[in-house]
Amino acid sequence: xxxxxxxxCLSNSFSRFIHLVTFGxxxxxxxxxxxxxxxxxxxxxxxxxxxxxxxxxxxxxILHKEFEELDVAVNEARxxxxxxxxxxxxxxxxxxxxxxxxKIRSYSIxxxxxxxRSLESSLPPTSTSLADIQRCMEEFESLxxxxxxxxVEEAMKFIREGKxxxxxxxxxxxxxxxxxxxxxxxxxxxxxxxxNLKVDQSNQVNHxxxxxxxxxxxxxxxxxxxxxxxxxxxxxxxxxxxxxxxFDPVIVATGQTYExxxxxxxxxxxxxxxxxxxxxxxxxxxxxxxxxxxLISNWCDENNVKVNRTVDHNQPELETVSHLTQKDENGxxxxxxxxxxxHSRTGSTSTAVSSSDxxxxxxxxxxxxxxxxxxGFSQWPSDGGNRNYPRTVSLPLDSSPNDITTSSLxxxxxxxxxxxxxxxxxxxxxxxxxxxxNNMENRTMIGQSGAxxxxxxLLRSNIxxxxxxxxxxxxxxxxxxxxxxxxxxxxxxxxxxxxLETGNPCAKENAAAALFSLSLLExxxxxIGQSGAxxxxxxxxxxxxxxxxxxxxxxxxNLSIFHENKARxxxxxxxxxxxxxxEPESEMVDKSVAxxxxxxxxxxxxxxxxxxxxxxxxxxxxxxxxxxGKENAASILLQLCLGSPKYCRLVLQxxxxxxxxxxSQSGTSRAKEKAQQLLSHFRSQRENASGRGxx
Length: 695
Prior knowledge:
32 helices, about 60% helix, about 5% strand, transferase, EC 2.3.2.27
């Protein structure tokens, strides 16, 4: 192509670029100011090129090539701006804009220098053309890139070197690119992943993917520092995609937990990699994470935080609840009573069985909670009571939740568990308890390191705090299904029963929760009942702390699913304490009624409930309890009345008919059914009695 044609094409490219930038730059396009500065400099450059005598540069091949390269760069920048959309990645945009602007600036300066040298010998020093070229060079040389693109480039240098960018770099990028809102960051994450799918293993995009990971991690940590009622939100309660407190946490194939709506949006875009681990998902099933959901529920209750979904984005938001008496749907007071246990423990699975839609549940062979509307099992109520879960970790350790756990560290801790030093054992158990607190990878590493057996041995330690740390570590590890099986197969039942009988209050609570966790494995539900765990669990139900009583009731509830355990629970005297705990001030009405509902399915259960004076309290629950409590209370009363005319008369004497009529009209579907069956039974009894009287 001749130089005249090259200059004509270049001039035309300048005009199109200048027009686009002047009238059509998208509002959220990175480097807008720099593009406008480039356009201003190109206006001057265009005037210079239009006035150049072709003869001066006709034979300069290097200059000819630089004209072509500048033309390509200007057109690339124009096409990039034209293709920029609202859903484009800001980080990718900043990186590409920087590259394009640097390229235009570099070629323009080179051309100006070449043209200046070419004209310098033939024009006087005072020539207007030479002055314009010098001014054009100065404008391009003084062109400064946007701070955001510079910060992104600095962060990318760290990533290319295999390092984590400094926190101040990441926070500046978040601020400069306006990624601080959860919606913007989720949109950016999706946009980056789309860019990643467009190219085949591009190092540049891979590094941007790494950068967005570090930004999300930083945002999660920043979110967790925000105080709600003066308490920081645990980082593992925050979805790494939505950056919101999780409302419906689910587990993906890699074991990571996300808010359902956020990860579903991610998967709906056709993405096949886990946003956090970057591993390819072997399947796209979303498994409810009942444990994390229960932990969040308990944390919210403890700290007077109410979780609502926002209307626009279907994301949870935090809302402070007044310290006045405010009850949730299960009737639990949201004030925070003082617990007797001063050491925090991480999430146990004892509160994992919860439901906001009042489905009936049973436990499947795999240990997962399954819908079972037709089963005879009662619904275990959501734990609205307060739990002593950690706001901050108060253990005598130097670690922090962000410490990188290595296999060598865990190996050393396992060795310390086996040492002859009591202090070394205690510290190692505490450290493992802490490391297993909220990190799936840590649990897997600890479970595979040989830690389970020495932890089980420490359950028989005479040092109470050592025993407590060991049982809590095992409880935390049991959240992982595979490790749960390993713990059970290592002979955990008897040592856990020993802790139930000898431990301090916290250790007893956590032992009960651990037994519940193991009872999610169906074969161990039988073994736990046969191993003598029922009696100490009932003792904890009688004399434990509020948390201990809740843990004991939860474990007993799950054991009661196995028919033979019902008789064991009744014979151990549980009904007496469950009836006592039906008093509203106990904060355990729903849990007590749920367990009694299971026990009432056998005749000795009905006998014990009536003998311990449970009928008046059950009628009271039908009248003024929670929806779930009413349902289970009606079920128990039906069992009692079907089995004995005497109990039927006692129920009627307590004035059960009006609340049952109300329940038959406005209760849950199962409650309506039970109330209607009971009222029908009353009518049948009355008609039979009337018939006998006439005859």
